[in-house]
Design brief:
By secondary structure, the chain is an alpha/beta fold. 40% of the residues lie in helices and 20% in strands. The protein has helices at residues 14-26, 37-47, 63-73, 87-95, 108-123, 156-167, 175-183, 192-205; strands at 6-10, 30-34, 51-54, 78-82, 100-103, 130-133, 136-139, 144-147, 150-151, 172-174, 215-218, 222-225. A five-stranded parallel beta sheet has the order 2-1-3-4-5, with helices on both faces. It has a four-stranded antiparallel beta sheet with strand order 6-7-8-9, with helices on one face. Strand 8 (144-147) and strand 9 (150-151) form a beta hairpin. The radius of gyration is 19 Å and the shape is globular. The mean pLDDT is 90. The protein binds calcium ion (CA).
């Protein structure tokens, strides 16, 4: 049990708790439940879980306050699991330091993928050297991008944008986060420059830019890149 990955679930709905508990236990995770925000903060401090699932609608505290307090000192990935579907709620949670966001109801596969993605990013490992999904490959150190084995050429900004998404593949990055990472914190909030560059990237890498396979739009929130499927060989970890 000790070497299993531990997941702290802060959620007051007992049905959802037991559902997630069953799902994660069946996938070899160790699950710890907290029914209130206060209990969640205490357990996060005492047990140092590897991943935290956080519901925003809690009986004793606002979920955003729990998120904010956790982020002051806890570095474990936090995935917000919420019934709130408004884009502004997602953007707020992500901008406050959540690693990802999943909306109820979600599929088992979706939840498992989000947990895998969050763990992969927090380890910081050779996955970061190569991105590979479907017919697209990015070699970060050599700054090369291949589509169906043929090298493709991007402008400097397009390259920075695509590699930012690829390095964070599987998770949604907000427009504001991307804009400030590429153009700096003083860029205005108009997303037009981002949309133009994304259209150009899609034109170069997507078979059908209207139905992208690599970079997906989360309407009103940001972009999410297809999860990295590259599996490093064992000796790359040494
Ligand atoms: Ca709730």
């Amino acid at each position: 049990m000790n070497n299993r990955i531990s997941v702290l679930m802060i959620e007051d709905d007992k049905n959802i708790c037991s559902y997630i508990n069953t799902l994660l236990s069946a996938n070899s995770y160790h699950v710890i439940s907290a029914l209130t925000g206060r209990e969640g903060l205490n357990l996060a401090a005492s047990l140092c879980p590897d991943v935290i699932l956080l519901d925003l609608g809690l009986p004793d505290m606002d979920g955003y306050d729990v998120l904010q307090q956790l982020r002051l000192w806890n570095r474990a990935p936090i995935i917000v699991v919420s019934a709130r579907t408004m884009e502004t709620d997602k953007v707020t949670a992500l901008d406050m330091g959540a690693d990802d966001y999943i909306t109820k109801p979600f599929s088992n596969a979706e939840l498992m993928a989000r947990i895998r993605t969050s763990l992969r990013h927090c380890r910081g490992n050779p996955y970061d050297r190569i991105y590979k999904a479907l017919d697209l490959e990015i070699h970060f150190e050599k700054r090369l991008i291949f589509l169906e084995g043929k090298e493709i050429h991007l402008t400097q900004v397009e390259y920075q944008l695509l590699t930012l998404l690829a390095a964070n593949s599987g998770r949604v990055l907000t427009y504001r986060f991307i804009m400030s990472a590429i153009w700096g914190p003083y860029i205005d909030n108009n997303n037009q420059i981002l949309r133009v560059n994304m259209a150009n990237i899609r034109h170069k890498i997507e078979k059908n830019p209207a139905q992208p396979q690599y970079v997906f739009t989360e309407i009103g929130v940001g972009y999410r890149m297809h999860e990295n499927e590259y599996e490093p060989s064992l000796n790359e970890f040494q």
